[in-house]
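Structure tokens please, single chain.
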Amino acid sequence: MFSKILIANRGEIALRIIRACKELGIRTVAVYSQADRNSLHARLADEAICIGAPAASASYLNIPAIISAAEIADVEAIHPGYGFLAENAHFAEICESCKITFIGPTPENIRMMGDKMMARSTMQKAGLPIIPGSSGEVKNKEDALKIAKKIGYPVIIKAAAGGGGKGMRVCHNDITLISNLMIAQQEAEANFGNPNVYIEKYIEKPRHIEIQLIADKFGRTLYLGERDCSIQRRHQKLLEESPSPIVDSKLRKRLGELAVKGAKTVNYVSAGTIEFLLDDQNNFYFMEMNTRIQVEHPVTELVTGIDLIKEQIRIAAGEKIYLHQNDIKIKGAAIECRINAEDFENNFMPSPGKIENVILPGGPGVRVDTHIYPGYEISPYYDSLVAKLIAYGNNRQEAIKIMQRALSEFTITPIKTTIGFHSRLLENPLFIKGDISTHFVQDMLKDNKTE
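Here you go.
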């Protein structure tokens, strides 16, 4: 096992990793930007090193600064968390070349699954169903029109190197397809440094179901149930739950076994997630693979009793997974609400600023993953996530009740947050019934405006 790990991240995920390391007896090194000088992750780690100016490009994306910090602190491994450099194959390669263990998959895994067209082709060969679409890059409008005619409208243009919902354009006819193609290519270039795009059939109002995997270096790959991530806005997840209210044991087994098959095809190692779209007829299609820990990992931890961060670290240290697939049991239900510093009543505008008052919810079945405290300054430089509120109950209905109670206790002032939005969401009769899709929030907000 490692004796010292550097955490190349910030916020709640940095704290989450520090806590797992402390329980494993591992010393931690935090890196922080000038804007995060007073952050909890810098305070609670055993050592802390400033790596640059507030902008992410000068700090948390600054590979030379992070590697220098790792060498100064003499660490054996780096945990990238999620976001920033977590899915950067070049960073993973540099870690390897510096004899520092990257706590995550191999650079080859990251590169292959990071190219969405390559991932799609690889998983199709592995036997996973894929959404009908182009077999590779769409270069011009003639290609695009030909594919759209073959698969039928609506279609969606996607960035080959995309993620986080960026570089996507839905088209319902030839005119919108031609006009959006160049825009999508420009967005892909601007966001990912790669203008390549591809086209898929657009599945209207699907569910977004993802399978959590862990895989060691000895060929053991397990699936840890599913998460329903259908509650999202502009392709950004807002609430996740496990298990999904629509997935029964038979479908869970089918999705899980296919996800394991896909991971084994690329010799995947570490924690990872294979994501599917599920239509209203329960047909499912491979969408993408995330080669990192997910923001929503706590719901899986609560229903399985498995600490995913510790598993990541143990796997990276060369340990075997001690569990078998039959050991994985889904017990109870968990829901996670992402609490963002945003004004949901004003089109979810960011709300940076100083927090003066915080009251965290507690009691049975409540977990709060957060890095905020009274006096903490929400920076405009980074993601607006300020807390993850997770509720656990014996079943979904109980988890909803616990979450409703927890939200009513949660106070963060004077900044605006999405606590009120989640309270409304959790009271929605359709949500309570489990009748949801990726368009649920869009429809809910539209209905509220109509009222």
